[in-house]
Hints:
The chain is α+β, with helices and mostly antiparallel strands. Helices cover 26% and strands 23% of the residues. The relative contact order is 0.14.
Amino acid sequence: xxxxxxxxxxxxxxxxxxxxxxxxxxxxxxxxxxxxxxxxxxxxxxxxxxxxxxxxxxxxxxxxxxxxxxxxxxxxxxxxxxxxxxxxxxxxxxxxxxxxxxxxxxxxxxxxxxxxxxxxxxxxxxxxxxxxxxxxxxxxxxxxxxxxxxxxxxxxxxxxxxxxxxxxxxxxxxxxxxxxxxxxxxxxxxxxxxxxxxxxxxxxxxxxxxxxxxxxxxxxxxxxxxxxxxxxxxxxxxxxxxxxxxxxxxxxxxxxxxxxxxxxxxx
Length: 267
């Protein structure tokens, strides 16, 4: 959800903390420090600017606060096996959520001057945080709160869900299919002989009042391999703000629902 006075999204917005809640220096004034912050302010009141803000954020840099300040500023490469220590803030439910920032100045406003920080590619940082969610500029006048599902949708990554037997899922053909996404999926699926069938549908999850794109695949490939292959397609696709669910079943199982992405192959 985008923070700002006109926001109407159902996601939880960052709130001004109570005294002693961990954000002692958060202030209400917000003068944009860079192009990303200019777009953030515009996007809070104009939904048509949100995609431009998101692209600027993913293609540019974001900042995180660290528990300790390094002695000197320097550039370095983050190793794959390295654990990042990121300062968090309180969620409304009492849990903790990683804090990210749109400029170095915002870190000082929230955590104080002299706080350690790191600057990273926005897309790379949010991929690291995708399983936890994140909050941009907590306690300040303009920010964004992302659930793990919202981050996955933003990054074009599939959502991992635990499906209970009693969970209700309503599937159907979308009234306005995302044609470019569908064509990109078809091209990718056609190049995989181990995938025999696939369908694309709109899923409605009544229990959480949510929607997602639903890709139903029949394949002899392991589910993780299929999910990784499709994630590469989803990363560059326009998802219209919806997360993606991928289900992989064995070849020959019951047909799916929705738009057929790939017809059955005969050997």
